[in-house]
TrEMBL record:
The keyword Cytoplasm does not apply. It comes from Agrilus planipennis. It comes from the Eukaryota. The keyword Metal-binding does not apply. InterPro entries: Alpha/beta_knot_MTases (IPR029028), Ribosomal_eL30-like_sf (IPR029064), rRNA_Methyltransferase (IPR051259), SpoU_MeTrfase (IPR001537), SpoU_subst-bd (IPR013123), tRNA_m1G_MTases_N (IPR029026). Transmembrane segments: none annotated. Residues 63-80 have a biased composition (Basic and acidic residues). This is rRNA methyltransferase 3, mitochondrial. Residues 63-97 are annotated as: Disordered. Keywords: Methyltransferase, Transferase.
Length: 425
């Protein structure tokens, strides 16, 4: 007989033999009217099935074994025991309840944006896609954005301006194919990972009330890589403590409109790549050489020693009133008094080459370092006369008045008015 059967039969025989002594106790529980009374053979069969089930042994047909000697018998017996243990382990593994694992599928974003036939190569993302969350979380975090040197652009116009300026586009997210078709000719064929995202997903991540349905993540351009055009206006605009994003964006837009050579932002200004600054500048970030977060010792190293520094002062006030309003020391009062105050149209800007114009924020105004620098660089305080008791203009309006007057004088250096007719279209 198979060793397995032999072992089970021996155990069952012993159990039945022990239970035989308990027959004398049968009258005690007879009055309980059991549902069914099993005989010894039936009960042995039930016990056999329970043992087989508990040990989870697969019953196979017995095979004949021939033992040549006692040593072979011991060897085969040990092998059978090992096989029995291995079968039990395998059976236990099979009968264990399987854990249901939810696999998260992610899209494979390709670096090839346009194939040889001119078709877009992009990946599709579902709602709450982990790749989209990872990308946009990084670019929206101030810490990671600064570390990685990235910026988020929304809208076709902003992305096109960045591509025209040879900025490196890392990711392009869109919801409608027609939006990508508009910028197809500006996209590089390689190096851009394009991902199609559901519109609701983009709306959730957008900083705008209504998302345009297209986002681009660019590598911030380096200042040294920008070369000013040869016909640019010899004008450097210094933004001093402009903390309103809309004012800074308007300032950059005006600077690009007049063709200024460069723009410098002091440390007190708002972040250059803030969303509202980008929206109000309308792509001026990519048309100017912009130095951001600089202090005056660093600014003086950039400026030419022969520069003429102009300060846009919105108020016609006495030096004492100016001093009393900003609560400066007597030393600063003397510095302000030493700087002449003139209307902007009374100066010949064409003879002041190169020019440096300092424009201050509406909240903080002109800093003390700006007034000290004006003394060093032959400074002049400029004023825009106003009517109807209007105290001042905002930063963008004041800059536009002065900057376009400078542009006009540089374009019209001669008194020969016949040449002015050529400028009229």
């Amino acid at each position: 007989m198979d060793l397995v059967y032999r072992k089970v039969f021996t155990k069952l025989t012993t159990d039945v033999f022990k239970r035989g002594f308990q027959i004398r106790f049968y009258p005690r529980w007879q009055h309980r009217t059991p549902r069914r009374v099993y005989s010894a053979d039936e009960y042995a069969e039930i016990e056999l099935q329970e043992v087989i089930k508990s040990k989870q042994i697969e019953i196979e047909k017995p095979t004949k074994f021939s033992f040549s000697n006692r040593e072979d018998s011991k060897k085969d017996h040990s092998e059978d025991t090992l096989n029995l243990n291995s079968q039990n382990k395998q059976k236990k593994k099979i009968n264990r309840p399987k854990q249901v694992i939810k696999e998260t599928t992610t899209t494979d974003m390709l670096s090839t944006s346009i194939d040889a036939e001119g078709n877009f190569i992009y990946s599709k993302a579902k709602n709450n896609d982990p790749q989209v969350s990872s990308i946009l979380t990084t670019v929206k975090s101030h810490k990671h954005k600064k570390k990685e040197g990235l910026s988020l652009l929304e809208g076709k116009r902003m992305i096109v301006e960045a591509l025209k300026a040879n900025c490196s586009l890392k990711y392009l997210l869109f919801s409608r194919t027609k939006d990508v078709e508009c910028i197809k000719k500006y996209l590089p064929k390689f190096g851009v990972k394009i991902l199609k995202v559901p519109y609701r997903e983009m709306q959730m991540w957008s900083d705008l009330v209504t998302t345009p349905g297209i986002m681009g993540i660019i590598k911030l351009p380096k200042v040294d890589e920008y070369n000013s055009p040869s016909n640019s206006l010899p004008l450097t605009i210094i933004c001093d403590n402009i903390r309103e994003p809309g004012n800074l964006g308007a300032t950059l837009r005006i600077a690009a409109g007049v063709g200024a050579e460069k723009v410098i932002l002091t440390k007190g200004c708002v972040d250059l790549w803030e969303t509202k600054v980008l929206r109000s500048s309308m792509g001026a970030h990519f048309k100017l050489q912009i130095h951001s977060k600089m202090d005056w010792p660093s600014i003086t190293k950039i400026l030419d020693s022969s520069s003429h520094l102009l300060i846009a002062d919105n108020h016609i006030v006495t030096e004492a009133e100016h001093f009393g309003k900003v609560n400066k020391a007597d030393e600063l009062k003397e510095i302000i008094q030493s700087i002449p105050l003139l209307p902007y149209y009374n100066l010949d800007f064409s003879k002041m080459n190169p020019l440096v114009l300092v424009i201050g924020g509406e909240t903080e105004g002109i800093s003390e370092e700006s007034f000290k620098a004006a003394v060093k660089y032959k400074g002049v305080r400029l004023n825009i006369p106003l009517k109807n008791d209007v105290e001042s203009l905002n930063t963008g309006s004041a800059l536009s008045v002065i900057a376009f007057e400078i542009l006009k004088q540089f374009e019209c250096k001669t008194d020969d008015f016949s040449k002015l007719e050529k400028l009229v279209v």
